[in-house]
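[step 3/7] inverse_fold.run input=structure_tokens len=219
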């Protein structure tokens, strides 16, 4: 029962990780730059994401521009696009597989099949967490290095936005869920290796009868 509850907890974490992963991929606020200027009425908030750049004015106007050209983007944005999409796909596969393999569901067949399904789902979650953690770390490193660069003007410097933090938290949830699923299945398999089922061997009646027949021949 405890293992089933732990798997259900890991499944909830994985769900939050999947939703956060998708939201971080689509949100336009990976890096934010607030330019207030001399008058707060003309304040402008510029946000840049993986797929679009948005500008928010203090008057309530909001405009976005899609990034159509892929080759013109920096290499870290291209890598972030690819890895975040892979993270979303892998985490979705992990949700589908662990739904079949969890103890609290009636899908997946016998115990060994469900255990293998949970282990495979945990591997998918681990890969999705790694693919989601790499772009967020790389993107944050680029933001910090540009912010500390003295040759870059203040108007061109940015700070990490909410999408970066969402990506970090989602990757952590996916990694924790993957570790829980893999460790629970590994403990079960390890117990089966250490304590194999006992096999009882009974002597065959045919051998006993043959042995008795040979003894009578020698008397």
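[step 3/7] decode complete -> sequence:
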């Amino acid at each position: 029962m405890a293992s089933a509850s732990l798997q259900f907890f890991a499944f909830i974490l994985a769900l939050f990780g999947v939703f956060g992963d998708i939201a971080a991929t689509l949100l336009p606020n990976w890096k934010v730059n607030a330019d207030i200027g001399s008058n707060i009425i003309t304040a402008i908030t510029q946000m840049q994401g993986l797929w679009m750049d948005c500008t928010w004015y203090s008057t309530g106007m909001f405009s976005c521009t899609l990034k159509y050209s892929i080759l013109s983007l920096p290499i870290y944005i291209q890598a972030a696009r690819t890895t975040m999409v892979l993270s979303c796909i892998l985490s979705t596969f992990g949700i589908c597989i662990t739904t079949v393999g969890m103890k609290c569901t009636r899908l997946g067949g016998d115990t060994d099949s469900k255990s293998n399904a949970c282990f495979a789902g945990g591997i998918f979650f681990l890969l999705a967490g790694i693919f989601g953690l790499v772009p967020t770390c790389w993107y944050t490193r680029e933001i910090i290095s540009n912010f500390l660069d003295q040759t870059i003007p203040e108007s061109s410097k940015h700070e990490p936005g909410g999408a970066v933090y969402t990506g970090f938290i989602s990757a952590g949830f996916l990694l924790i869920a993957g570790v829980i699923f893999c460790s629970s299945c590994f403990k079960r398999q390890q117990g089966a290796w250490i304590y194999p089922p006992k096999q009882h061997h009974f002597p065959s009646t045919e051998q006993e009868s043959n042995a008795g027949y040979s003894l009578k021949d020698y008397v």
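[step 4/7] annotate
The first strand starts at residue 31 and ends at 35.
The mean pLDDT is 81.
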